[in-house]
Amino acid sequence: MAQARECAAEPSRLERLGCYDALFLTFDEAAVSEDLRPALWHAINAQEAEREGDDMGLLVREEGEDVRISAPALGSVPPRPQLVIACEKTITRFQIHLPQALDAPRVQVRLRAGGRELEQVWQARDGGYVVSGGRGLPAIATLQQLLDADELALGSDQATLDGLRFETAGLRQAIQPLRDACRW
């Protein structure tokens, strides 16, 4: 307790903060190597592990109030990037999950599907393992334009994403449980 009083007596805010950190912050090496991938990334990875044979179509799983839809990238070798459409905590999410982290905070993306082309800026999140096309209303607006497409193709300034293709045939029907869960 005496050391804490010494820290409190430090006139400089920065030095005082450093003193408290040195006194109370416990350094855990396990925390440094913490997995940056979110629970949804792991859930989708487990979901994709259940995939049967050569099936590359949409895989839908419902767990409680949450709904997860995934599809692996066509023409790529495992571990593959994965298209992810999810209703998690009643929020719609539209993402690409990557096996290797992307080293760019923002990414230019062209979505081509069903004769339509959309240009968007997506954000890399969760250490670069998740590239987010939006959540909530922006995700819903994009998804509504993809409902009748058989395939989604991406173009990007990032080689990791450029040329990715996903089978989306039947999305209008497959997404119905997600629409019900996320109330749209």
UniProtKB/TrEMBL annotation:
Protein name as it appears in the record: Type VI secretion system-associated protein TagO
Species in which this protein is naturally found: Billgrantia desiderata
Name the InterPro entries on file: T6SS-assoc_VCA0118
Q: Which domain of life is it from?
A: Bacteria
Gene symbol of the encoding locus: tagO
Kindly name one Pfam family recorded for this protein.
VasI
